[in-house]
Amino acid sequence: MAPPAQSQRSPSPSQPSGKSEVSDLKLQLRQLAGSRAPGVDDSKRELFKKVISYMTIGIDVSSLFGEMVMCSATSDIVLKKMCYLYVGNYAKVNPDLALLTINFLQRDCRDEDPMIRGLALRSLCSLRVANLVEYLVGPLGSGLKDSNSYVRMVAVMGVLKLYHISASTCVDADFPSILKHLMLHDSDTQVVANCLSALQEIWSAEASTSEEASREREALISKPVIYYLLNRIKEFSEWAQCLVLELVTKYVPSDSSEIFDIMNLLEDRLQHANGAVVLATIRVFLQLTLSMTDVHQQVYERIKAPLLTLVSSGSPEQSYAVLSHLHLLVMRAPYVFSSDYKHFYCQYNEPSYVKRLKLEMLTAVANESNTYEIVTELCEYAANVDIPIARESIRAVGKIALQQYDVNAIVDRLLQFLEMEKDYVTAEALVLVKDLLRKYPQWSHDCIAVVGNISSKNVQEPKAKAALIWMLGEYSQDMQDAPYVLESLVENWDEEHSAEVRLHLLTAVMKCYFKRPPETQSALGAALAAGIADFHQDVHDRALFYYRILRYNVSVAERVVNPPKQAVSVFADTQSSEIKDRIFDEFNSLSVLYQKPSYMFTDKEHRGPLEFADELGNLSIGEAANNVVPTQMVEENDKDLLLTTSEKEETKGSRNNGSAYTVPYDGSSTSVFASQTHIESAVSNPTSAGHSPQASFAIDDLLGLGIPAAPAVPSPPQLKLNTKAALDPSTFQQKWRQLPVALSQEISVSPQGVAALTAPQVLLRHMQSHSIHCIASGGQSPNFKFFFFAQKFEESSNYLVECVINTSSAKAQVKIKADDQNTSQAFSTLFESALSKFGTS
Amino acid sequence: MISQFFVLSQRGDNIVFRDYRGEVAKGSAEIFFRKVKFWKEDGQEEAPPVFNVDGVNYFHVKVVGLLFVATTRVNVSPSLVLELLQRIARVIKDYLGVLSEDSLRKNFVLVYELLDEVIDFGYVQTTSTEVLKSYVFNEPIVVDAARLQPLGPAAIFMQGTKRMPGTAVTKSVVANEPGGRKREEIFVDIIEKISVTFSSSGYILTSEIDGTIQMKSYLSGNPEIRLALNEDLSIGRGGGTIYDYRSSSGSGAVILDDCNFHESVRLDSFDMDRTLSLVPPDGEFPVMNYRMTQEFKPPFRINCLIEEAGQLKAEVIIKVRAEFPSNITANTIAVQMPLPKYTTRASFELESEAVGQRTDFKEANKKLEWGLKKIVGGSEHTLRVKLTFSQESHANLTKEAGPVSMTFTIPMYNVSRLQVKYLQIAKKSSSYNPYRWVRYVTQANSYVARI
């Protein structure tokens, strides 16, 4: 009876092709269809099971559709369920056959047993056949009003399924508003939770086209709804609690007492055994307290213990998910966790992906008081049987050294690594010693003594070899046999496969030559000859360059190749803080595990309820309607004002001729601010003026290719903004996510401006008069937050601005992102001048 | 919100496959399996529980060798999906009694029925065995548990506890006993996993106890239950570093670092008398998880010595001493130690009176293994190994070998001294006296001695 073990995709000779079996089943089903003999249900069950098992392993049993439907006339619920499962699986590919099932499903929807009603309704909605939607509306409508909560629960999900088959049918039947009513009034919490899931999906999808839907979506995070759900949170199942908590994250409380009320209410959720509930709660806490530094700090302290408990109590998979979140928090606030470092020690049986997270955490929390112990522990891992982890442990030691804690002891450890005689340990340690010397040249004496003892023959890895060669060149004056080691390396030039190593070798030989010319001369000659003959382009070019510059002037060559160096103070971070912030905003999502913001791994439609839209969503888009309306008006007028082609060219021409002012072609448009705008916007920006044309000119000349230089008169660098710029919120969000911050600055707001900022709208109108449009705004005194955008005149190049104005300090924090980075400074100047005029004009 | 759920066997066969939203292409199971199997070319690294291939996120958990997988395109909460997968496995086990490839294959229709009620259109509806009972109608086909290898938590209690019905916990919550009437009984298991790292000189570098009080109730009529823990139990160690051993006295109060509770647990009187009250839902669930870093006496002391013994030769001596009372017996003990890479041969020498011990040298990964069926409290066992090397060792041998790691199970023993003082079942009738099983077990999680 058990389904065959092999699956369809790897058919073996013994595997039944299915064909004869299926026709056999067909015959048997037909015989049973009309039978009323006792025990017939049992035989049917056996047959149905066979059908389903074929279905599972991928054999096509769709040809049995008719027989299955005929056999489904039964009161046996187990049979019914199997039949529903079958129908649901094949209806989509056989819409004609699906019609056959409608009758009996609709009849079952009126059955007196609520279980049958629910099951039939679920199957009916799962058919996923577009031309059958008309049959769904009736049963769904009565299902939503059913006296049994199971049926209502199923009906609510049914509405969502209907929406995905035919959005218009669903909306036209007014189902969303029925769900909204149920959500706020149903006694069963699972019905409420399903309503919430369904409404979030429906309204998010509708919001892009319907004002009303986006208002409804906003209404989900309004105070009454949030409080209604929060007050009942303990009645919800643990999964529904996660849903509610996710919603609460988007809610913006009006004051701090509200924040504390919510946190006190949710405090005990941190003790929940389900990690998903705890993480959702933590996200609420973190989001709520973002602007309250002290409390935010306390939250970190508070959540430490529950997180650690989850890490150690859950399944290995769950513990990895939680650990990733802990990792994120540790990276953000290492000092909070510095006394918990022992929790981040690796256990020998942990998988590599867990160990890797822990190593990073250990590196981050290292400080004056625990460095010694952490480094001692890391050194144990260096001898680990797991070689990749051993390597990373050594790198971790190096990173800690570069963080400047107790370098003294660490250098000794690193040098011990070099003596360990394990090739990968030596290799990693060499790379580290090199980095260390770049930051702390004062250690050169100690390090060089040890490095000098390493035979270059024992170092094979390119990175390590390059590091060793770099040190030989850099410290050739202190290393007795440096010229000779380099010489032997040059002799084996042809055996060196890595271009990186050969490049380093060239440079090292040069450096050595400047310090110890007589000993190095022959090696240098050999190296340059080998380099020029090298097939690798970069190696060849570098060798040729060295050769020519040496011929020109040796002292110039020395200044170029071996100038005095400054110690590196900070090595560049791998991830921008912008991206890290983004990931933090997406706490309790996959972003944390992948260490990437969601736009990097999901397409827009699937970004889910956690998407960035929420940030804008918090700031009511409704308020921005003030400026949406004029924009639309302008667009409408635009149609009447369409320019002829010649006129357009004229405008362009005048721009290219470099005139500083362009006649606004929108002439008499409704925008009364237009003329003022262009004068204002034409502020030129001297810093970025004409840099790139000049640079390209220089290069053309250098190459001597005889190509005419770039136009001698570059177009003037002033920036003009489009008064009628239009950008829809979703594009804005997408751009905001993708673009890096071009500029970030603090701008003072005049006292008059602060006084005028009684409501955000006032500023919106003012900025609009400068062709800077608001897309979303929000906040309460003293903190107002605005998202603005502007477009370059006649180009689709956008500028996006986040502006947070604090009225008590009269300062605005401005972040600017731009499609065209080169003009962001010019735009910033414009923006600043516009903002500073606020209240004065 | 998930898109698909499926269970794959170790060989990658679909055992059950349910598509909830039709957003992910059908071939996902294959894509997933290939990715997991060939995560890194060298096969050394395990695939993480969550990964993304072409915009589809794959989540998986491993349960008894089966892969429980969910897919979605949405950026969901990973801990929610992973927890859900674990719960689905648990619900299935509650129903089938035994969770195995065989039992799943025999009961796949029942499993489909469960899956339909657990998730609707990708959204979790319920994972409570209790609630599901009223929606699910298929009867489980019970797989003979005796035939199965003792896997999972049920097996760990079986040795050394004569009165304990070993098969009870592999009983389905819905299937009727052959006799017709269900036996009224409740199991409370205190399972502690301990992690200890000893330094080369025998000091304890780190130690932690991760404990769970697990319950499985077969009581009819859902009576309320009261569980009383140690009265002197305290939670949370005030300020300072968690690893401050001096602050905790060797004897006396049990101090937990932190704990969490199942949602059915009410803590009304917990602060007063350390009593948990709950109405246990059907099926297996953790009442409470706790974590402890308070100092405790490790059940085993490990001594390891590695010395050169002439050219291309060395000797290893491993001593294991059981430091628990002699009426307690540990079982299924395994000791492992990586040897220098250039080891070619290892000859073992056990004590003369050794019974039920086996030794092995794993040539491929240069590891020695020493298995002991049982160790009685207070006893000491020694293993001597003579190693032959293929090359001269230049460096310190202790840097080339070790650490020694150990796994074991000690039934009816717990290191934390946390206890269930009593288990009270509130039911009116005086004749009602169900079986109550309170069982303790200690297991090694990461038990390592450096050399």
Description:
The complex is a heterodimer of chains A (841) and B (451). With 841 residues, chain A is mainly alpha-helical. Among the domains of chain A are: 221-313; 326-424; 441-566; 572-606, no CATH class; 619-639 and 663-697 and 714-841, TATA-Binding Protein (2-Layer Sandwich). Chain A is built from 41 helices and 5 strands. In chain A, helix 3 runs antiparallel to helix 4 (77-90), helix 7 runs antiparallel to helix 8 (149-165) and helix 20 packs parallel to helix 22 (407-418). The longest helix of chain A is centred in the middle third of the chain and has 21 residues, at 293-313. Chain B has 451 residues and is mainly beta. Chain B has 3 domains: 4-132, 2-Layer Sandwich (Beta-Lactamase); 184-297 and 413-449, Immunoglobulin-like; 300-411, Mu homology domain, subdomain B (Immunoglobulin-like, Sandwich), CATH 2.60.40. Chain B is 14% helix and 41% strand. Chain B has a 9-stranded mixed beta sheet, covered by helices on one side. In chain B, strands 2-1-5-4-3 form a 5-stranded antiparallel beta sheet, with helices on both faces. In chain B, strand 17 (300-308) and strand 18 form a beta hairpin. The longest helix of chain B has 19 residues, at 78-96. Chain B is globular and about 75 Å long. Chains A and B meet through helix 2, helix 4, helix 8, helix 11 and helix 14 of A and strand 2, strand 4, helix 2, helix 3 and helix 4 of B. Chain A: It holds the Pfam family B2-adapt-app_C. Chain A: InterPro entries: AP_beta, AP_complex_bsu_1_2_4, ARM-like, ARM-type_fold, B-adaptin_app_sub_C, Clathrin/coatomer_adapt-like_N, Coatomer/calthrin_app_sub_C, TBP_dom_sf. Chain A: One of its GO terms (molecular function) is clathrin binding. Chain A: Residues 1-17 have a biased composition (Low complexity).
